Amino acid sequence: MNNSVLVKIARTHLVERKKQSIIAALGVTFGIGTYIILMSFMTGLNGLLDGLILNRTPHIRIYNEVEASKVQPIEMSEAYKDSSFVHVVESVKPRKSQASIRNNQGIKLALQKDDRVKGVTPLVSARVFYQSGSVLLNGNLMGIDAIEQEKLFNFNQYVVGGKPEDLNNNKNGIIIGAGVAKKLRLKVGDYVPLITPNGESMRLKIVAFFQSGLAEVDNIQSYANIKTAQMAANEGPSYATDLYIKLKDIENAIPMTAEISESFGVHAVDINTANAQFETGTSIRNLISYAVSITLLIVAGFGIYNILNMLIYEKMSDIAILKAMGFSGGDVKRIFIYQALIIGIVGGAIGMLMGYGVSVLISKAPFETEALPTVKTFPVNFELAFYIGGSLFALFTTFFAGYLPARKASKIDPVEIIRGQ
Amino acid sequence: MSNILEVKDINKYFYDPVKVQILNGVNFTMKRGEFVSIQGKSGCGKSTLLYLLSTMDTNYEGEIWLNGELLTGKSANQLAKVRNEHIGFVFQFHYLLPEFSVLENVMMPALKLGIKSRSEIEHLAYEKLKMLDISEQAKKRATQISGGQKQRVAIARALINDPDIIMGDEPTGNLDSKNADLVFNIFKDLTSSLGMSMLIVTHDDDFARRTDRVITMADGKVISEGPI
Known about the structure:
The structure holds two protein chains of two kinds.
Chain A: H1 3-16, H2 18-55, E1 60-63, H3 73-76, H4 104-113, E2 117-132, E3 135-144, H5 146-153, E4 159-160, E5 173-177, H6 178-184, E6 191-195, E7 201-210, H7 215-218, E8 221-225, H8 226-232, E9 242-247, H9 253-264, E10 267-270, H10 271-274, H11 276-314, H12 316-325, H13 329-364, H14 384-410, H15 414-420
Parallel strand pairs in A: 3-8, 5-7
Antiparallel strand pairs in A: 1-9, 1-10, 2-3, 2-6, 2-9, 4-7, 5-8, 6-7
Helix pairs in contact in A: 1-13, 2-11, 2-13, 2-14, 11-14, 12-15, 13-14
Chain B: E1 3-14, E2 20-31, E3 35-40, H1 46-53, E4 61-66, E5 69-70, H2 76-86, E6 87-90, H3 102-113, H4 118-131, H5 147-159, E7 165-169, H6 177-194, E8 197-201, H7 205-209, E9 213-218, E10 221-225
């Protein structure tokens, strides 16, 4: 009931000192605004960069690797088994093995039944030469199931000038690397002659360009139908060099990789091992944005603390008379805490509007990069959690900034003030 | 008639920089509706005594009874409530809140008490101002009126919760003789017409002589009680 009179006194103090109050509130506004802008933009960017790696890279990749036999024949010999012998065999050569993953269809079916797995898709990698007149360019043709690739790995984000699905209905289609296309001056709709290592020649029609932004990939890589790539590799319909696996939860990547290599006897590599550096980048960027915005809010808190402290010195005799009238120490404390909270709420609300407005502007600003042909504007993450977190933090800091001066005010001895005058 | 105020064996010391006894065995009682002044040279402890009676200073030995209720030993919050409900103050310097209007200043203690509704309080405050003949200043800022008017507003504020007693610390000390007269007459009127009890510290002999009873103090002791 008497709270409303405390709020009224708090409000009157603030309104009477418009300039100071506005400056104090602006501190909070900039703190919260910057926090929201930084977090929206940084996490948007992080999401984009994560997407580059997490969404496009298989969580587990199964492949065959050329390697020397783990157990060399000499070690199997009974005669030299004794540990007193040292095996010295010069120039051990790796065994020739098939490039195809053995029983890849069976592995695929088995993995698809696993409920941790979101999808499995086979790939066929074949070496080719792009021909233009008498010039031959080294290349690699990847046979893919374009629809699966798109569904699991956002393949369409790399594809410009056409749709990846066109590959599935067209055995003679190719999505050609943007670097190759540039070198050979090729357009969508052109035919490009390819020479396979066996000397066979095939002509494929360009349905789109592939642009990853990495020159060494774009200068070599092209995509085609699985069957086309199998033909280029001169292999049959069961031939597949890689299996790409996407999981429902990326956390399972490491344990599942070990499981797969053991149970199927294949090489498998998980995304964390393949991209160890990327997680570090994300967490450091997050850390920096938190550090900057928390610093700003703490600075705003000091501003409020300072202004309230000054106000209390100025208001000594008012505080004394309020106490003489029968306001308790707690009432006086509340008056000043309310002032801090009003500054926090008003400044915070404006800060949120400002943060939202600037975020919208950033999200409309053009952002074009070679690496992301389908992204046209800056990525901004409009997440409600930042706004809730920002407002809670604003209230928290302003409360504490107000608490210390308020406690001091509540302890003022009215007799000392009244007699001192 | 019952006693509104009873003071029993009050001793008070100041400890800074050395222990000094300010009040030495002060005893007196005050009847309801009495107009009492406390007089004495400066440093005799009269203001110190008033601040003890006002409940704002609790560091003393002895007992203070207000309207049959022992105030000594109550908590700070209980005493704040006592001040709010039962005691009205008028100080030498007006002590109005400068950001608020005259009317709001008068309303403040009643808003704190929070028993009546806002519109009732506003009406009541207006009545008090009218009684003291300054209702036409009600909407003005507290800083926009003259010193004599400010003191009358402070009296109106002291009256708003219908206290048992009004305490004044040199309420006329800062006023010219015309305004001092006016304030004295208001106090006199309040005792005679409303039966209000008044305890006023003053060093103005003229003021003291006209009250019902004068308590004269010297060196922390009451040396005489009764009309001069």
